Sequence to fold (389 residues):
Amino acid sequence: MRVRSIRNTVLATAAALAAIAAGIPAATSATAAPTQTSAPGDIVGVEPSAFHPLPGQPTNTKAWKVHYRSTTADGAPNVVSGTVIVPQDGRTGPRPLITYAVGTVGMGDSCAPSDNLPAGTAMEANLIQQYTLRGWAVVVTDYEGLGTPGVHTYTVGPSAGHAVLDAARAAIRLPGAGLGADTPVGIMGYSQGGQASGWAAELQGSYAPELNVKGTATGGVPADLLKVAAFNNGSYGSGLIFMAAAGQDAAFPELRLDSYLNPAGRLLVAGMKENCVAIDAIAGSFKRISDLTTRDPLAEPDWQARLNQSKLGRTAPAAPVYQYHALGDELIPYAVGRALRADWCARGANVEFDTVWVGEHVSGVITHSPEVGNWMADRFAGRATHPDC
Fold:
């Protein structure tokens, strides 16, 4: 163990020296906290990283892991980690930036994208590579509590939206990334990332109006958590209900999730906080809320109020939106996606909606990625949108 400790110290020192040589702040510790004078998006720590879609696969990119200042759902300052990836393609002019929100990876710190992108084990790395191959920079947030102290605030929409927007700010402020205040920004995400990107789109006009956002591509969006929970109760996706409950409880401790759980429920939720999605989904599948609780928290007014706080569709995104949803989605009902489209359209948003006719939840993000990339390329090129409200 002493050899490992010495090795880790040497590596940390080398990373700090490399950061200092590059003229950027040395990496902060895991307990980094925002300073009283820091603003959302300010970098509080940075260290060299790497981007590999598969183990050892070269990508001709440069990457950094950053810790940056963001904001909780209730407006308090926090620190979130993420990864900035910039193609090394000789481009000298301005390049677009994608702030990318990943789908569900789990709640354990080892599930964080910043841990898995360098190792080639991140689930959406091949999708991200499609955008770096276009010459776009990409920043991938870890979200609140995923890779940083505390429990991941899974499915808490405002927190995730802040993290996505502040990741873009951090990438733009990162010395060496080659980005600037006028960098065109695209917001992308699917599933949990669909909720996060949708929230980023709704919040951008008020929370980060200085960002030059050209559009948001969002898919498989769990826009109404109460409806998604009712749909999944007792089904293949029921584990997501308990992960979401743990995430909401992490953001709002007054909900007192533990007081509703029976011994089996406490054991399941404790395990979910330490593991990644493959284990969590299997462990929680085909269970009903009544199997793991003494009474249903989702029937309580305080839980309903907090879950409704994450409901999308009450604010029109300032920039155009491309929204897509699989007709056969077995986790997020297609009707929930259509309702979000209707809500945004009713508020005057510029929305183009696309139905994925063949496939289910996971395949939807894979098969539709070319359309997503082409739509965003059109936004960066200044071409006309085609809203269909």
